[in-house]
Amino acid sequence: MGLLLAAVAVFVLTNLALSYFGDGDERTISYTEFSQQVSDGNVTKIYSKGDAIEGELKNKQRFTTQRPAFADDNLWAELTKQKVTVTAEPVVEKPSFLANLLFSLAPILLLVVLWLFIARRMRGAGFGAGGMLGRKAPPKPVELEVGQRTTFADVAGIDEVEGELNDVVDFLKNPQAYRRMGAKMPRGVLLSGLPGTGKTLLARAVAGEAGVPFFSASASEFIEMIVGVGASRVRELFNEARKVAPAIIFIDEIDTIGRVRGGGAAMGGHDEREQTLNQILTEMDGFSGSEGVIVIAATNRADVLDPALTRPGRFDRIVHVSPPDRGGREAILRIHTRDIPLADDVDLTQVARTTPGMTGAELANLANEAALLAVKRRQHQVTRSDLSDALEKVQLGAERALVMPLEERRRTAYHESGHALLGMLQPGADPVRKVTIVPRGRALGVTLSTPDADKYAYTEDYLRGRIIGALGGMAAEHIVFGVITTGSESDLEQVTNIARGMAGRWGMSERVGRLSAIPGDAQQAYGLSAAPATLDAVAHEMRRIVDECYESACRLLQEHRARLDALAAALLENETLEEEDAYRAAGIPRLAKE
Q1: DSSP letters of 419-488?
Q2: 69, 306, 393, 420: least CB-packed within 10 angstroms?
Q3: What is the structure's pLDDT at 437?
Q4: Is 416 among the residues known to form the active site?
Q5: Per the residue annotation, which of 416, 460, 573, 575 is the catalytic one?
Q6: Are 468 and 553 in contact (CB under 8 A)?
């Protein structure tokens, strides 16, 4: 706002100055017009110096003109006749040389003052967005009231991470014990993990357990268009934390400013992001073990951070926050349903079993969606049905009111039956939990399969079974209708990712060998980490694996065509089949599969 007002002031003052020493309302006219005005009696007074004439008309309009050297008219007689006053002083006042100089320099001086104003604001920029445009208050610690303080009791499912952070809490509570032993705590703790795994919650829990001031900021708050503002904000944040030490500084999404240096688009690499990162590194180097200020940062892209940021002496402790296991998911659900009245038929252990891979944030959203459904249904408690429907909405997407033609419904039923039947027949495949031909999200139908227990490593047979199951929909349409539709797009994306990993990353191809030809982040760096011949071999092996799996899918569906028809008929009749109904319709005992 200050910058805008200063610009408006420069514009207004410049125009006033120009209007003051400029021509104002003075007008230059031709000598012919001047003679006519004199003859008409419209001229009241004039002043002449040489051939130059200044004058004023009866309407107070001032003018200037030039009398030609060849003019032979009787000007004096005409002026006398019309009683025009010939003055001894100029009619049009001209500013002095000094005044002209001052007014000509005024815009430049105003611009200099404006620039000094901006520079001063930059040097004293406050912490937080927009600090350079207005004086901001120093950063304040997040208020941690006793009744609302986050502690480790509010964190569940990541006990191993909690154990590592307990060291930080103990140091903040008992720093003297560590000093007596000559031990120093890490200057920085980096929490790395997928989005929603609870990194910010952990940082707040550390501050709550230790009972120390907690400064929270997002890395993007340091970045401004004008270079130097981010570094200034970092200095002010660290200075304020030192004043109230022991304290915790939490920087979220630090990969925004902490990426590897040297690849920036700015000329010479000296852009705002790098200056801010350099200032953070400098501030952390300036710590001594007695200051009691610990920096906790969070990121889901630890692989792109600058090595100078993660070396010993800075963020020298990296804590990996993984999605919770089944027991952890159950504990998280119990925390997020503490304030939600649950019916007697709700089994959180079963819900945790059917939600593998879900993070703490996703489980919190699941509990909230179930509560919202209960309110819409005018219930006083959340029932098992509410949780089941909320899980479907979260995992499969919201239902769509879409009326499909009968032929398309039949194709969809066979498509989903192909997925489900192959999942039931494959040894070691994930059990089928639900099959539906009700359109959800972008899909016309969904088959949901989840494991009975969490899996952390996958065998080649299991991955081939996943590919066969994903190709089951396309194979069923090909066998029954002799066509291939666009409904297999998401299935083929899943198949491609699995086959690429098998051939190029996990050593499951004899031709490629026991090497990793494709990096984990294949979408960004695919094709840059191996020779062209190796990549050709990976593509060839991907195609071979998928072709073999597709042949297996078609063979199994042809051998069990009667079961495929029965499952599709049950789907057309009921639209949605739960786990027991789906296995019963296909004629496959669930216990025999286990």
Answers
A1: HHHHHHHSTTPPPEEEEE-S-BTTBS-EEEE--SS--SS--HHHHHHHHHHHTHHHHHHHHHHS---GGG
A2: 69
A3: 87
A4: yes
A5: 416
A6: yes
